[in-house]
Amino acid sequence: MFKKTVGVAIIACCGALGCGGSLSDEPERVLVSGSVTYAGQPVADGEVRFVPTKGTEAPSCSAVISGGVFKAEFKGGVPVGVHRVEIRAYRPREGAGSEEVPGMAQGETVKDQYLPAKYNSKSELELTVESVSGPITKDFALEE
Known about the structure:
By secondary structure, the chain is mostly beta strands. It is 11% helix and 39% strand. A hairpin with a 2-residue loop joins β2 and β3. The N and C termini lie far apart (70 Å).
């Protein structure tokens, strides 16, 4: 009986104190979606990453690009604030059919990131996410 009472008391305490942080500790977020093209063609496989800058105190987040579109919706979307946008696009490596790479599952295709650094590691792309009542659509038309 004592163990059961202690367990109930611990659960009640955690609920009252907000173990692990409360929802009010989370930054406000906005759903961001859109399209990504490179040289006029949809990016078939890739990632868009939103990295907070300019005093924005929030975690970075990312979204998968599939068939030229993305939707950043994890935990409610991209935190409100200013973000550097990094975009990576992947395609299968030519002649990689029999290549073995440490850490890759057998049968997995080796992929290369093919966008210029100006869109990822040296990106100057920026997005300001403001508190709004609805989702944001942002399209990225990248040129060579």
